[in-house]
Fold these 3 entries.
Entry 1:
Amino acid sequence: MTNDTSTIEAAKTPFTPSHSDAELVNQPIGYWSSAAGQAVVHHIRTMLAEHGLTQPQWWVLNQVIGHDGGRDRAEVVDVLRGYLEFGASGIEHNTDVLIARGLLTQDGDGRIHITAEGAALQRKVAEQQGRTRDEIHEGIDDEEYVRALKVLQRMIHNVGGRAWHH
């Protein structure tokens, strides 16, 4: 974890909502959902950067690990291209970076394979990711978390938006 001041302050200060319930009901969901997304993604990306990874590199490693025969590169890109703002070219680029770093290899058939070094890094970061998830979910039980996701998904549906995560 980083030792930046906001993280330290967040650990010292108990959570209190920004407004009363009566005031929160009129707060803009666009602002709060965006603020939550930005804060959580920043927290995750900071943790990954401490391990020398970008978020799309982490996604690629997770798509390849556990596949002894490797994964078809085009298939991995297809699964991940809709994630956040990266698109297919961003996933391709980050896959190339992982290959250049020796964390993945690519065979002549376009299948990518995780190396021993890549697998070791993935396991190490997966352990840290579990701790990071616990930090993000502190004080939020599973029922409350599921309810929040359903509310956000319903709002996306209500405005004709599309979102998907595997």
Entry 2:
Amino acid sequence: MEQEQPEELGGTGGTGGPGGSGAPGRLGERELRVLALERRGFPGPGAKERAIREELGLAPVRYYQVLNALLDDPRALAADPVTVNRLRRVREARRAAR
């Protein structure tokens, strides 16, 4: 299962962006699931990582690589502007703190 996911979630897939949705103007189902997971709240430490593994079948490191690429994808911004803009602000604040 891990072998096919890099193309679906982070490979070029021929669409010019992360994922291989097949349609240049739309995110794939997996990319939408990553954004949906980010909208959720988690009760305690480890719960989010557990959800990443169980629901998406990804290692947390790979998940965060895909998520970071999605934050730079205009399709993700169009699909979920509130979540993407919030995560971009968090990312910029972390970069500025370094």
Entry 3:
Amino acid sequence: MIVHLLPALLAATSTPVAFQSTEALDQLVQQFAGAPIGVEGGARAAVDKRLRLAACADPQLSWRSAAEDAVVIRCPGPQQWRVFVAVNVLPKAAPTRAPVAVAAVRPPAPVKAESVIKRGDPIMVEAGAAGFSITRQGVAMGDAPVGGRVIVKMDDKRPPVAAIAMESGRARLPGFGE
């Protein structure tokens, strides 16, 4: 009996399954976007040929967003699927305005905050919340302005901690009492 079922089983499994043509999807994207693959306004690349999408009688195309940077292809049928195709975005035209004379102004140089904690300084590190407070002495491993992060070595046997510089000689562990 098994011998008689084998040809029928092979015939049933060898029937071709209908897949959506990726070339057809490329043509739809080209028509929708108005430009061929690889140029401005067209798809960046062809739809991946390795995709095995169920055949779709009526694929629907839309823009992914107002930026028009990708096309979404949807199949609404019983075998629903969705594919995103990246698009080479067209440069947007700048709004037309009357020319304005602009004086060359150099932006001010950024002011570097003065460090209140210097490398090697002994500092007190605080941690706490409503109802309790803990302080521990440590040594600053770098410089830090007020509000800046500083690495503090508190014990030779434990890794250093990151604290927020409060003032000279004082830092606070972030996340406690904030």
